Amino acid sequence: MSDAIRVNGNQYDWGSIKVKILGEEFYGFTAVSHSQKRERAKAYGFGKHRAPRGRTRGRYSAEGKMTGWKSSVEALRAFLASQSPDGTNYGDVEFDIVIQYIEPDETPITEELFQCVVASEDASHEENTDPLKEEIGLDVMYIKKNGRTLFDNSDKTR
């Protein structure tokens, strides 16, 4: 099945996105990005062809980041800290992120980032008229896109 032909239709855009963290919807983020990759190695052997004889299954890795208004990032920190045993440590709290892209007359797209933790924070503020923003780096265990994974997940529990 190929992609649909669109004539004067809506494409997914920033207004299509909904982000939920531990089931709570967050609105004050201005960017969300994630990446995943599988690093594979080719296996060579004897033969005049000198072509690879196969490849490894590879090593999978995933990461993400979110940028938001300073108040929204602080609200996220407070929310995550409230999930920790001592109520103050937000860096060790594991959470899932669900990103949905929803448009009328389109099939929703769902991307799930599993077992995330805050890995980094970056803030740089300067004098201007823009509101203050912060960026949070995420250590992500794995990603599903509409229930599908880049790696063989036949032995994963969720």
Class inferred from helices and paired strands? mainly beta
Report the major sheet.
8 strands, antiparallel
Helix content: under 10%
Distance between the termini: 27 Å
Mind telling me the C-alpha Rg? 20 Å
Global morphology: globular
Mean pLDDT: 92
Number of helices: 1
Strand content: 35-45%
Element pattern in H and E: EEEEEEHEEEE
Number of strands: 10
Contiguous low-pLDDT stretches (5 residues minimum) are: none
Protein name: Phage tail protein
Polypeptide structure, described:
The chain has 158 residues and is mainly beta. The chain has a domain of 83 residues. It has 1 helix and 10 strands. The strands form 2 sheets. Strands 1, 2, 3, 6, 7, 8, 9 and 10 form an 8-stranded antiparallel β-sheet that branches. A two-stranded antiparallel ribbon has the order 4-5. The longest helix is centred in the middle third of the chain and has 13 residues. This is Phage tail protein.
Provide tags for this entry:
Phage tail protein, mainly beta, 158 residues, single chain, eight-stranded antiparallel β-sheet, 1 helix
Give the helix/strand layout.
Blueprint: E1 17-21, E2 24-26, E3 29-39, E4 42-43, E5 54-55, E6 59-69, H1 70-82, E7 95-101, E8 109-122, E9 133-140, E10 142-145
Antiparallel strand pairs: 1-2, 1-7, 3-6, 4-5, 6-9, 7-8, 8-9, 8-10
